[in-house]
């Protein structure tokens, strides 16, 4: 399976076996990460792969491996991290492995540059999903204008499944907006909507590349006015 097909069938898992990935697979995955073109040319996102003894947090699923994802202050830091590691989520799924973003997880060793974690390993049972089984907002709720790549962005995972994104497709480019906050009590606790938009941008990138075009995202001015409750982030050219 390729990354694009994974978008339409993937599912997060909470139930991993305790079996670690073979060393060779970890090596291949690290090599894959090196091939991902960053969202912004100067983005600097780093990571560690650790075992369960190095992480803490409420409700963290038991898994053989965790990514701890880091970055110093930089433009769209969390968005760049979401973009890079959603490629890894799709890669793992395409290889028969599974993962889950974990906003509630922290490294045992505190670090001010820590952004978020992700559990990964072998799923207890292989999980696949049909399109109709994705619990997602409709295209009309998250977009204006037509561009088939938005079908892929719509299916992106997000914290609390909040899907805090909006897209306006107009004469080629896609203008990307972030919902300022998630409503209600959950929204008071959840502050990663910028990272979620990076995840959706990854799906846009994979869909763009699938169509044989290069993906380019720029922080630009001159976008259609931001819909109520959203902020303009940038443009997919
Ligand atoms: C940024 C982010 C943080 C998340 N944090 C958690 C978490 O702390 N605990 C958890 O069980 N799931 C977490 N999730 C998983 C989401 O709940 C899940 O992706 C969403 O419900 C959509 O389901 P799907 O990934 O199966 O499509 C997180 C997902 C994202 C993208």
Tell me about this structure.
With 237 residues, this protein is an alpha+beta fold. It has 2 domains: 119 residues, NADH Oxidase (3-Layer(aba) Sandwich); 102 residues, putative nitroreductase (tm1586), domain 2 (NADH Oxidase, 3-Layer(aba) Sandwich), CATH 3.40.109.30. Helices cover 30% and strands 21% of the residues. It contains 7 helices and 11 strands. The strands form 3 sheets. A 5-stranded mixed β-sheet has the order 7-8-9-11-10. Strands 1-3-6-4 form a 4-stranded antiparallel β-sheet, with helices on one face. Strands 2-5 form a two-stranded antiparallel ribbon. The longest helix has 18 residues. The two termini are 27 Å apart. It binds flavin mononucleotide. The site of flavin mononucleotide (FMN) has 16 residues, from strand 4 and helix 7.
- Which CATH first-tier class of the largest domain would you pick? Alpha Beta
**Integer average pLDDT:** 96
Shape: globular
Unique bound compounds: flavin mononucleotide
Main sheet: which strands, in order across?
Answer: 7-8-9-11-10
Number of strands: 11
Q: For this entry, what is the oligomeric state of its chains?
A: single chain
Report Rg.
Answer: 17 Å
Give the uncertain stretches in residue-range form: none
CATH architecture of the largest domain: 3-Layer(aba) Sandwich
Distance between the ends = 27 Å
Provide the helix percentage.
Answer: 25-40%
Secondary-structure content class: alpha+beta
């Amino acid at each position: 399976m390729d990354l694009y097909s994974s978008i339409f069938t993937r599912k997060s898992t909470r139930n991993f076996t305790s079996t670690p990935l073979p060393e060779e697979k970890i090596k291949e995955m690290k090599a894959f990460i090196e091939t991902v073109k960053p969202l912004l040319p100067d983005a600097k996102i780093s990571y560690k792969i650790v075992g369960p003894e190095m992480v803490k947090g409420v409700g963290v699923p038991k898994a053989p491996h965790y990514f701890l994802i880091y970055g110093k202050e930089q433009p769209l830091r969390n968005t760049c991290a979401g973009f890079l590691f959603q490629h890894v989520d799709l890669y793992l799924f395409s290889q028969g492995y599974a993962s889950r973003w974990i906003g509630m997880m922290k490294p045992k060793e505190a670090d001010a540059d820590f952004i978020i974690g992700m559990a990964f390993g072998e799923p207890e049972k292989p999980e696949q999903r049909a399109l109709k089984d994705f619990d997602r907002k409709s295209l009309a709720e998250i977009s204006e204008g037509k561009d088939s790549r938005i079908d892929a962005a719509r299916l992106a995972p997000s914290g609390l499944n909040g899907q805090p994104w909006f897209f306006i497709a107009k004469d080629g480019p896609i203008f990307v907006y972030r919902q300022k906050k998630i409503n209600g009590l959950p929204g008071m606790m959840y502050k990663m909507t910028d990272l979620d938009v990076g995840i959706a941008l990854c799906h846009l990138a994979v869909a763009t590349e699938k169509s044989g075009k290069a993906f380019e995202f720029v922080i630009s001015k001159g976008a259609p006015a931001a819909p109520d409750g959203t902020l303009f982030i940038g443009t997919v050219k």
